[in-house]
Amino acid sequence: MTATGHPLPHDAPPGCPAHRGAVRLAGLEYQQSPSQLYRALRREHGAVAPVLLEGGIPAWLVLGYSELTYVTNHDELFARDSRRWNQWERIPEDWPLLPFVGYQPSVLFTEGDEHRRRAGVITEALEGVDQFELAHNCRLIADELIARFAGSGSAELMAGYAHALPMRAVVQMCGMPAAGTDTHRLVDDLRISLDAAEGDDPVAAYARVADRLRRLVEEKRAAPGPDVTSRMLAHPAGLTEEEIVQDLISVIAAAQQPTGNWIGNTLRLLLTDERFAVNVSGGRLSVGEALNEVLWLDTPTQNFIGRWAVGDVQLGGRQIWAGDCLVLGLAAGNSDPQIWPEGHVGSENAAHLSFSNGEHRCPYPAPLLADIMARTAVETLLDRLPDLVLGVDPQELTWRPSIWMRGLDALPVHFTPVVG
């Protein structure tokens, strides 16, 4: 039936959303400027566009802000359990997007009371994080990372700072050592599983992540500490060890890669936009505004897969069939001209969709903890290196070739060397 309760005609085959004009979301020239893709799709198809995932698998990309909020607020129509998908018979075992959509006993795929139980455990475990201690630890990590390149007068900030800081902070928060070969291997596998480059095996990487976190859960059951993993194990909801492993993957993945790109995208904005240059040099006046503007204009999580239609329904003038996959176009929704009618996307409010929306949005207080990590990383860097400037022409910066995540390949900078 339609979203308003009217019955649908059954004159089209279920499981076939790839109408004429469907655009492939892989190998796109738009990857360096995805906003062009979203504008083109919106002009051609409206708020809901037919797309093709890796391997020509059909899906719907939800582009409209109001349509996205409708989908995410109506779990009874658009649910998270991917086993509903009407395309599974076409999905190979080595499909690159399998880590995103292959059903796991994770909070990400639960629904109803079970989702509230699992999300409640994560929320309470994260609420146990001392925010002042987290900020302090982030400053210590930032100081250590900056000290590695401060004397050279130049650095590449994405690998050496923007991704490294939240990586160390979040694994420390979960009870792992903040540094070391084991930790770096875990984070590299997380990157591969979330945003694989050519030649990477995201399915194998995801399996290695799960194995390492199983060992962490075993270690914390034997010797609990003041960390997220131990609090999840001690929670009266009584999650199994496998449930905790899967939910830890969600927590770490959601915190590390997106936060690293949030830091990098914010530093890029501060270093290239003259609106911020005067105020930011040596100070902090505009850091909060820059962080928020990035969530509107260059949100790290561009698209999220997804939701699956529980039954036949209409959305944005499109007929969606039971089992169809919907990709949440968070970046497209943030720049929807329906909410910015004059074409100006501002940073004056926080009603963006960068942490998603509805019951399955990023659970509180995760966005606040991510903000602490990102804000501390940016402010500490600007304090320690107040004359930081971009090391290349802004047009030379390139984005990772991903339709899912928005982050720079590299962010080279120059500054006056600091000795000692």
TrEMBL record:
SUPFAM superfamilies: Cytochrome P450. It comes from the Bacteria. Signal peptide: none annotated. Coiled coil: none annotated. Belongs to the cytochrome P450 family. This is Cytochrome P450. It comes from Streptomyces chilikensis.
